[in-house]
């Protein structure tokens, strides 16, 4: 999970449709955040380095009996 300000920094200036208007982005973030929080089985701090986020997700999956297949 990352806050609205972090997510806006990641997308503004790109050609992504939500990156065009910060006010629209903020409204959509506030509207969607409770839904995402309610549906998520796992929440991770996505402001950390990507490898740390992936490691946490992989540990969570493995702890629940998930199996990994080599590509």
Descriptive account of the structure:
- This protein has helices at residues 4-11, 22-39, 50-63.
- The longest helix has 18 residues, at 22-39.
- The chain has three helices and no strands.
- It is elongated and about 40 Å long.
- The chain is mainly α.
- Helix content is 56%, strand content 0%.
Task: Briefly characterize the structure.
The protein has 71 residues and is mainly α.
Write the SSE topology.
Blueprint: H1 4-11, H2 22-39, H3 50-63
Major β-sheet annotation: none
Q: What helical percentage do the residues reach? A: 55-70%
H and E order: HHH
Low-confidence stretches: none
Task: Output the number of helix runs.
Answer: 3
- What characteristic shape results from the CA principal axes? elongated
Rounded mean pLDDT is 90
Spatial extent as radius of gyration: 15 Å
Quaternary structure: single chain
Indicate the structural class.
Answer: mainly alpha
Tell me the total number of β-strands. Answer: 0
Beta strand %: under 5%
